Structure formats: structure tokens, C-alpha cells
Amino acid sequence: MAKSVLLCCVLAIACAVAVASDPGPLQDFCVADFNSQVLVNGIACLDPKLVTADNFFLSGLEKPGNVSNPQGSALTLATIGQVPGLNTLGISLVRIDYAPWGIVSPHTHPRASEILVVIEGTLLVGFVTSNPDNKLITKVLQKGDVFVFPEGLIHFQQNVGYGNAFSYSGLSSQNPGVVLVPDTVFGSTPNIATDVLAKAFQVDKAVVDEIEAKF
Ligand SMILES: *[C@@H]1O[C@H](CO)[C@@H](O)[C@H](O)[C@H]1NC(C)=O
């Protein structure tokens, strides 16, 4: 009995470590000092005596992003790059604008789960579970609806309304990262060998060349 309780504790701790996002802070804050030469997991702390409110501040997220691009979407970030006070806090924010029928390509965030709220418009959203199921979990969201994308899983959004749409997302990392599936698979530098992609997608090499030419 005692042994199985101990085993459960060990497993629980191991799982917590394995699925946790950014490590927890060991002080009130650690405003990023982008000039520091010290390399740490994250960014070194600015001297707390030099910290001001502006280190925790960003304006402009009321403004729509420019959606004139092939995907018809735009991301406005409030991550460690824009808000140095986020350093070590394990959270960030993004505004996403969508033209009518605009998409955010299938992508993953290697370091964060995401919680999205629709502010305007109608969005089709979804994520796919990992192997072997590869099950699509999908829903159409209206203004005010919230949806969660679990850490690491491939997900997408599309504006399925006739007007513009926008949403905000909270992410469980100061630096969630983004891996866009089309860009990484077909648009890498240099390209992944055509033979590899042709076999992976079970298409002719010409099809791979055609897709790669667009990136
Ligand atoms: C939006 O992006 C397009 C394409 O890059 C560009 O031509 C256009 O000037 C931009 N519009 C604004 C308002 O910045």
C-alpha cells in the first residue's frame, strides 16, 4: 500500500515535470535584460532597481492587424519580445485578425497550451490528437466563445463568417513559439529531400515540387 502510494507520488511528480510549461519564477519578477551577455533558460534579469511600469506594459492591441496576405490573417504578439516583464512568468497573449475566410494554417506551439476567446465574428477551430488516433476535435465558435488547444497539438482557425473576425489567445509560455506545418514541411531552408516528402505524403515528386515552389 505504502509502496503504491509512493509510486503514485513519483509518477505524479514525473508527469508534472514532463507536461509543465515554463518553469515557475523564484522571485517577484525578472524583467528581461536583452543587453545581458549571460545565457540562461529564458533571459537574464534586469536590475530590479531599474524596473519601471513600462517593462510590464504594451499598447496597441485594440488595432486590427494587416490581413492582406495569402492566409488572410494577422498575429499581433504580446510575448517576451514585446513585454520584457513577462520573463519567467510563463504566460503571453496574442491578438489574431482574420479576413473573411482567412485562416491560421495548421500549427503547433512547442511550449504552450492556448486558450482562445472570440471577440468578433465566427471561427471554425480544431486540433488533432497525436498518433495513433489522429482524431479531429473541432467546433464553430461565435463571439464570446472560448476554446482550448492543448500544448504541442496541431491546430487551426478559419473565419467562416462574411465579415472580419478577431480573437485573443492566452498562452502558457512567455515564448510559446510557433511551428507552421506547411512552412516547416514544404518551406524549410534547404528543402527536405523531395523523395522523403513524396513518400511521406504518398504523392509524385512533381506534386512536392509544385507545393515547395509556393514557399
Ligand atoms: C498590408 O499589407 C499589404 C501586403 O504586404 C501592403 O501592401 C499594405 O500596404 C498593408 N496595408 C497597411 C495598411 O499597412
Topology overview:
Blueprint: H1 2-19, E1 39-40, E2 42-43, E3 73-78, E4 92-98, E5 103-108, E6 114-120, E7 123-128, E8 136-141, E9 146-149, E10 154-159, E11 165-171, E12 179-180, H2 181-186, H3 194-201, H4 205-213
Helix pairs in contact: 3-4
The chain binds 2-acetamido-2-deoxy-beta-D-glucopyranose.
Domain Cupin type-1: 59-209
GO molecular function, one term: manganese ion binding
Family: Belongs to the germin family.
Mind explaining what this structure looks like?
The chain folds into two domains: 20-177, Jelly Rolls (Sandwich); 179-215, no CATH class. It is 19% helix and 28% strand. The protein has four helices and twelve strands. Strand 1 (39-40) and strand 2 form a beta hairpin. Helix 3 (194-201) crosses helix 4 (205-213). The model is unreliable at 6-11 and 13-17 (pLDDT under 50). The structure holds 2-acetamido-2-deoxy-beta-D-glucopyranose. The site of 2-acetamido-2-deoxy-beta-D-glucopyranose (NAG) has 2 residues, from loops. Residues 66, 68 line the site of 2-acetamido-2-deoxy-beta-D-glucopyranose (NAG).
